[in-house]
Amino acid sequence: MSKIYVGIGGWTYEPWRGTFYPDKLSQKKELEYASSKVTSIEINGTYYGAQKPESFRKWHDETPDGFVFTVKGTRFATNRKDLSQSKESVERFCASGISELKAKLGPINWQFMATKKFEAGDFENFLKLLPPEADGVQLKHAIEVRNDSFRDPAFIDMCRHYNVTVITAADCEFPQIADLTSDAAYLRLQGSSEAHELGYSEKALDDWAARIRKLAAGHVPDDMEAVTRGGHKAGPKDVYVYVISGDKVKNPAAAMALIERLK
What is the dihedral of CA 152, 241, 59, 67, to 10 degrees? Predict the structure, then answer.
C-alpha cells in the first residue's frame, strides 16, 4: 500500500495569519494547527542553517501520529563546484538532529541551484556520500535539480542505482523530470495563483489529484515530462506533494483541496 502526503513549505509565514491561521492564534500553536490541516510539511530553514536537535524533537512532539516532515539538506553540501568535497557537510547535516523526527522523517531534499550542470562522475561522487541511516533512523534521499542538462538517461539510471528520488518540479520554469527512480515520488507544485480562490482552478486540482494517484500506483502520468518511459521498479510508491512558491498565501488552501480530492 502506498501513502500520499500533501502539504506546504514551512509553517511560519506572516500573511497566513488571518488567512490560513485563525485570528489571534498564538504563533507557538501554528505548527500544531498546520499539521491538523495538511499531512506533511517541507522544512526549508535547514537549507540555510543548522537547527538544534531540541527543535526537531519539539516539532515531532507537536504534530499528530502519521504526520511527516521532509527536510531540505544544507546548501553547504550542494552549492559546490566539486561535489566530492561535500562529505563533511553531508555528514554534519545528517548528524544534526534530524533523527529526532523519528518515524516522522520523510525524504531529505538535496536542492541544487539552476547553474549546477550534470556531470556524471561529479554527481555520482555526491550520491555515494548519502548515508542510509542516522542514529538508527532510516534516511531517504531526494534530489532537486534545476538545469536542463539533467534530462539525461545516465542521471536517471544513476539515481535508480542509488535508490534516490528525483524531485519533480511542476508549473514553473524549471525542467520537469517525472521519472520514478526509487520507492517514492516527490512533487513540488509551484504555480499557485492569486486568480484562484484555492490557488489552482478546480480542473487543475482534479488533474493533479489524478496524476498523484497514478504515481502512487507506480506509473508516470502520460501528461508529465519524463526522460525515460519505463525502466523503474514496478509497484506502489509513497508520494510526497508540496504546494510551494507561486502565490504562497493560497498554498495551504490548494494543499487542503488536494487532500480532499485524494481521500
Answer: -120
Burial class (CB in 10 A: 0-12, 13-18, 19+), 104: buried
Residue 147 phi/psi, 5-degree rounding, is -125, 140
Grid cell, residue 210, equals 489524478
As given in the structure block, the three cell numbers for residue 29 are 500553536
| Overall domain count for the chain | 1
Which CATH number do you get for residue 140?
Answer: 3.20.20.410
Are 132 and 98 within 8 A, CB to CB? no
Question: Between the CA atoms of 253, 254, 255 and 261, what dihedral angle is there, to the nearest 10 degrees?
Answer: 110
Domain that holds residue 207: 4-262
Distance CA 153, CA 107 (A): 23
Nearest to 169 by CA among 244, 248, 62: 244
pLDDT tens track for 14-69: 999 999 999 999 999 999 999 999 999 999 999 999 999 999 999 999 999 999 99
Q: How far apart are CA 106 and CA 67, in angstroms?
A: 9
C-beta of residue 159 within 8 angstroms of C-beta of residue 178: no
Joined together, the cell numbers standing for residue 252 give: 495551504
The tens digit of pLDDT for each residue in 166-188 reads 999 999 999 999 999 999 999 99
- In the chain the first and final C-alpha atoms are separated, in Å, by 14
